[in-house]
Automatic annotation (TrEMBL):
Coiled-coil portions: none
Domain (Knr4/Smi1-like): residue spans on this chain: 163-311
Name under which the protein is recorded: Knr4/Smi1-like domain-containing protein
Species name: Actinoallomurus iriomotensis
Record GO cellular component, one term: mating projection tip
Superkingdom of origin organism: Bacteria
InterPro entries: Knr4/Smi1-like_dom, Knr4/Smi1-like_sf, KNR4/SMI1_regulator, LRR_dom_sf
Length: 524
C-alpha cells in the first residue's frame, strides 16, 4: 500500500512538472486532522520555484495513514524527491520535526523540549494599581435604560434570561477563582445574559451577552499562556492597545473574563489584571481578528453602557427591519483600529505612537536615528539593506529585531532590557559577545551572519530558539558549545534533505530514525 501511494504521488509530481525542471521535492507534515505542504520544482532559473498544487496534500494524508496503519496518531513528516529520469525516493520520520516555509527562511525545525512555551511579554508587564472605575448602581440603571430604549426602537422587549441570584454570582466567582467587578455583578442582578433562544443575541455591539454559566465555562476552557506549538512564536510580538500600558500585551490572559461573545469569536471581557495605566474591571476586546493586539474599550462596563446610551440619544444607529433585532450602532464606543504599523520606509516624521516598522528595499545604508522618536517601538525589521549603527536601538523598547549589519558592532545592544528575539545578518564578521548580556533574549537566528565566535552561544542562559546553517551547527558540535537550554532548533537553508535533517537532529540528542524509506523509478 505504501509503495503504491508513493508511486501515485511521484506520478502526479511528474505530470504537473513545468518545462526545464531538474528535480522536485515535496515535503509534507501530517498531524491529526491538519498539516502542511511545501517544496517545489528546481532548475527553473534564479528566483523561480514552481509550487505543488494543494491537492497533493490529500495524497500525503493517505500515505501517512498507510505508514501508520490507520489514523495518524503521531505527527509524521514525509519527503518525496523526484528527478526527470523517473527516479523517486521517500523518507518519512515521526516526531517533532517540521519544514519551515521559504518566507520564514526555509529549512527544518525540531522540538527539543515539547513542554516549553514562549510566554508573551504581557505576562511580565508592570501591574496596574488604580482602583476600579465602575459604579454598580449606575451600571444597573444604565442597563435598564439601554434595554428600554432598544425595545422602543425595535418595537418589542429584549429577550433576556431571568436575573441571577446573589448566591449564583457568588458560586460563579468561586468557580472562577476571581472576583467579578461590582458593576458587572450588578448587571447580572438585572438579567442573567441574553436568552440563547432569542432571535438576535447581540446586545453588546453585535456580541451576545453570556449567562453566568457560559461566562464561567468559557473562562475555564480558555487556553493561556503561550500557544499549542512551542516552535510557533519565538519571534512573536503583541502590540500595545491605545492608550499604551493599559492592557497587557498578549493574545489571552487568565485575568480576562469574557462576558460577551460575537459569532466570529471576538470577545468583550472585563480585565482583572490590567497593565500599569489600566484599571481593574476595564473592558477590552480580543479574539481571532486581533491576533497581535487587544483593544482597550472602556474603563468599566458602566462607561461602556454610557457610551451605548449616548449613541442612541444622538440617533447614531441603524434599524434594519429585515432581520430580527437589527439594531446597529453607527460606530462602536471604541475605535477598532490596529496599532500603528509602517511598511516600506522609515516615515518622516516618526510619530511617538509607532510600534512596528518593516523596512523593505531601502537604497544604501539605513539610518535608524529617526526611530528614537518612536518611544513605543516594539518590532523593527529591516528586510533588505544594511545598517552601520545600532546605537538608536539601545534607547528603544524593541523586543523583536531583524537587520543586517555592515561594519557595525553589537555593543549598543549590550544589556538591552527588552530585546527577546534577534534575526541577524552581517557583511563581514561580527562579534556576538554583547548578546551574552541581554537578559530576556530567548530567540536567535544567525543563519545570515558571519559570527566570529559561536561558542558565545553556550553562555546565553535564556536561549530557547536557535537557527543556524549546517556549517554553524557543525562548529558548535565540534567545540562542544551547543546551548543546553534550547527548546527548538532550526537547520536553516533550503538545500537540506530530510535524511540530512535526521542526522543533524541525532547530533542534538533526538532519535528520529526513519519509519519508512523506499525508492522507485517510473520508467520501470
Amino acid at each position: 500500500m505504501v509503495e503504491q501511494v508513493v508511486r501515485r504521488i511521484a506520478e502526479r509530481i511528474f505530470a504537473e512538472a513545468p518545462d526545464g525542471w531538474s528535480g522536485a521535492v515535496a515535503l509534507c507534515r501530517v498531524a491529526g486532522r491538519g498539516g502542511s505542504l511545501s517544496g517545489g520544482y528546481q532548475g527553473l532559473g534564479e528566483g523561480k520555484r514552481g509550487h505543488h498544487r494543494a491537492g497533493l496534500f490529500s495524497e500525503f494524508e493517505t500515505l501517512a495513514q498507510a505508514i501508520q496503519g490507520g489514523a495518524v496518531r503521531v505527527p509524521l513528516t514525509m519527503e518525496v524527491v523526484c528527478d526527470p529520469s523517473g527516479h523517486y525516493a521517500l523518507v518519512a520520520a515521526a516526531g517533532p520535526i517540521s519544514g519551515v516555509p521559504p518566507f520564514r527562511g526555509g529549512g527544518f525545525e525540531v522540538v527539543l523540549d515539547p513542554g516549553h512555551r514562549f510566554v508573551p511579554s504581557g505576562f511580565r508587564q508592570e501591574a496596574g494599581t488604580a482602583p476600579p472605575a465602575g459604579d454598580p448602581e449606575l451600571a444597573a440603571r444604565r442597563l435598564r435604560d439601554y434595554l428600554a430604549r432598544r425595545s422602543a426602537i425595535l418595537g418589542r422587549p429584549e429577550q433576556l434570561s431571568p436575573a441571577a441570584s446573589p448566591a449564583a454570582i457568588e458560586e460563579a466567582e468561586h468557580r472562577l477563582g476571581l472576583p467579578l467587578p461590582a458593576d458587572l455583578k450588578a448587571m447580572y442582578l438585572v438579567a442573567d445574559g441574553e436568552d440563547p433562544r432569542g432571535p438576535d443575541r447581540s446586545l453588546f455591539a453585535n456580541a451576545c451577552w453570556l449567562s453566568l454559566e457560559s461566562l464561567v465555562r468559557q473562562h475555564l476552557e480558555q487556553t493561556v499562556p503561550g500557544c499549542a506549538d512551542p516552535d510557533a512564536d519565538w519571534d512573536e510580538v503583541f502590540l500595545h492597545a491605545d492608550p499604551p500600558h493599559t492592557v497587557r500585551r498578549c493574545a489571552a490572559h487568565p485575568g480576562w473574563v469574557t462576558f460577551a461573545m460575537a459569532n466570529d469569536g471576538d470577545a468583550l471581557a472585563v480585565d482583572l489584571a490590567p497593565a500599569r495605566d489600566g484599571r481593574p474591571g476595564q473592558v477590552i476586546k480580543y479574539g481571532p481578528d486581533l491576533p497581535d493586539h487587544p483593544i482597550y474599550v472602556a474603563d468599566s462596563v458602566t462607561s461602556l453602557l454610557g457610551g451605548y446610551l449616548d449613541r442612541l440619544e444622538q440617533g447614531a444607529y441603524t434599524h434594519d427591519t429585515r432581520r430580527p433585532g437589527g439594531l446597529d450602532l453607527w460606530a462602536d464606543v471604541y475605535e477598532d483600529e490596529a496599532p500603528s504599523t509602517v511598511t516600506g520606509a522609515i516615515p518622516n516624521p516618526v510619530l511617538p505612537g509607532l510600534q512596528e516598522v518593516h523596512v523593505n528595499d531601502p537604497a544604501g545604508l539605513v539610518d535608524l536615528a529617526p526611530l528614537t522618536a518612536a518611544t513605543h517601538l516594539l518590532r523593527l525589521r529591516v528586510n533588505s539593506g544594511t545598517t552601520a549603527d545600532l546605537t538608536p536601538i539601545g534607547e528603544l523598547p524593541v523586543e523583536d529585531l531583524r537587520l543586517t549589519v555592515d561594519g557595525a558592532d553589537l555593543t549598543p545592544l549590550a544589556g538591552h532590557p527588552a530585546l527577546a528575539s534577534l534575526d541577524l545578518g552581517s557583511i563581514g564578521q561580527v562579534d556576538l559577545t554583547p548578546l551574552s548580556t541581554i537578559p530576556n533574549l530567548h530567540g536567535l537566528d544567525l543563519s545570515r551572519a558571519d559570527a566570529r565566535d559561536l561558542t558565545v552561544l553556550a553562555g546565553l542562559p535564556g536561549l530557547r530558539y536557535l537557527a543556524l546553517t549546517r556549517r554553524q551547527w557543525a562548529h558548535l558540535r565540534e567545540t562542544g558549545s551547543t546551548p543546553a537550554t534550547l527548546a527548538v532548533a532550526r537547520l536553516a537553508g533550503e538545500d537540506a534533505t530530510l535524511t540530512d535533517v535526521l542526522a543533524w537532529a541525532a547530533g542534538l540528542g533526538l532519535d528520529l530514525a526513519p519509519v519508512s524509506e523506499l525508492t522507485g523509478n517510473l520508467r520501470t
